Amino acid sequence: MAAAAEGYEAVLCVKPAVRVYRLPPRASNRGYRAAEWQLEQPAWSGRMRVTARGSVAFIKLEDKTTGELFAQAPVEQFPGIAVESVTDSSRYFVIRVEDGNGRRAFIGVGFVDRGDAFDFNVALQDHFKWVKQQSELAKQAENPEQGPKLDLSFKEGQTIKLNIANMKKKEGASGTTRARPMAPAGLSLLPPPPGGKLPSGERPSSLSNPTQLPRTPITDSLLSWPQPTAAPSATTSDVWGDFATASGSASTQTNTGWVQF
Q1: Longest alpha-carbon distance in the chain
Q2: What are the beta bridge partners of residue 50?
Q3: 43-93: per-residue pLDDT in tens?
Q4: Cβ-Cβ contacts under 8 Å for 226 (sequence gap 6 or more)
Q5: Dihedral, CA atoms, 58, 64, 68, 72, nearest 10 degrees?
């Protein structure tokens, strides 16, 4: 991948209007000042194209019409000696150009638009930021154990809060309770008493007689038990006895109350 990146040239920035100035001799070690360059009389004007091949960036000054190369400045580090900003303006820079024979010279470069100068500066910053990231990734690939380790331990005084919703436990409950079996029509039946297992082969007794079941408030409120009918008494064995007595007494009273004519 790195060999492929060294083979092609990427365009980082293109600016159509740029001016070149001759630099006067420096009187001291202080920074460059654009006010000393005779800004009204540029030595050359054309376009600027910033490219990159691998980790090295190239500032190319070309003719607007023919594209002929006027000067080229290789940049291996930014900020650095290859590109310097002036002290009195953000639109002017000093670059170090080189020819194919190893000769070097410093020239002044200025942009007509302040936004073009900003784009030029950002293009170089982004390129060398990418170069730094690639270098760090290559070092981590060679020595993976030297990379930063993830520390998940609690720091001193650090706490954690858990918010567990919908987990309410009844007071005094020792464990989970099983749901009671539901009878037909939604009636809840009591579980069988302990020790109610029958020996194999023996059939359970019939529950037709309601007096054999335990009478509890729960079963009495849910089930309607048939009430036993009372045995007939001896005094009501003769159904017509009362009527005969009543008729006999009535006839006696009639005979005594009426006057025969």
Answers
A1: 178
A2: 13, 59
A3: 999 999 999 998 899 999 999 889 899 999 999 988 889 999 999 999 999
A4: 210
A5: -20
